[in-house]
Amino acid sequence: MGAAPAWPLEGRAPRVWRELWSLPQSVAWERLHLVRVVARYAAKLVMAERGDASAAILAEVRQLEDRLGLSAMSMLRLRWVIADDKTTDQSADVANLNDYRDAL
Questions:
Q1: pLDDT digits over 39-56, tens only?
Q2: What's this model's pTM, rounded to 2 decimal places?
Q3: Contact at 8 Å (CB) between 97 and 81?
Q4: Separation CA 104–CA 9 (nearest Å)
Q5: What is the pLDDT of residue 48?
Q6: Helices 55-67 & 35-48, crossing angle to 10 degrees?
Q7: Cα-only R_g, the chain
Q8: Which residues, given as ranges, of the chain have pLDDT below 50?
Q9: Residue 90 has what pLDDT?
Q10: What is the 3-state secondary structure (H, E, C) of the chain?
């Protein structure tokens, strides 16, 4: 995983942004050109973590988490597997994020 792309939106969330881009899922986000979607998630997450977040913001955060593969269930639905290079089964019928990293 490389460095996080430059923060593309106005406002505060660069710390969350850098944390997100350190995750293994970031390989797929970059390949799928989801930079702005991840940025929107980071901005909404900062809003959701405030004490006065609306139900709508919380729902949007959950939906974006689902689409970005940020939970075990969403990774299963996306057929994403995060595996150590040493234990990768190349014959598996599941997308491996390490394959995306190698392609970049």
A1: 999 999 999 988 899 999
A2: 0.71
A3: yes
A4: 25
A5: 92
A6: 140
A7: 15
A8: 88, 92
A9: 53
A10: CCCCCCCCCCCCCHHHHHHHCCCCCHHHHHHCCCHHHHHHHHHHHHHHCCCCCCHHHHHHHHHHHHHCCCCHHHHHHHCEECCCHHHCCCCCCCEEHHHHHHHC
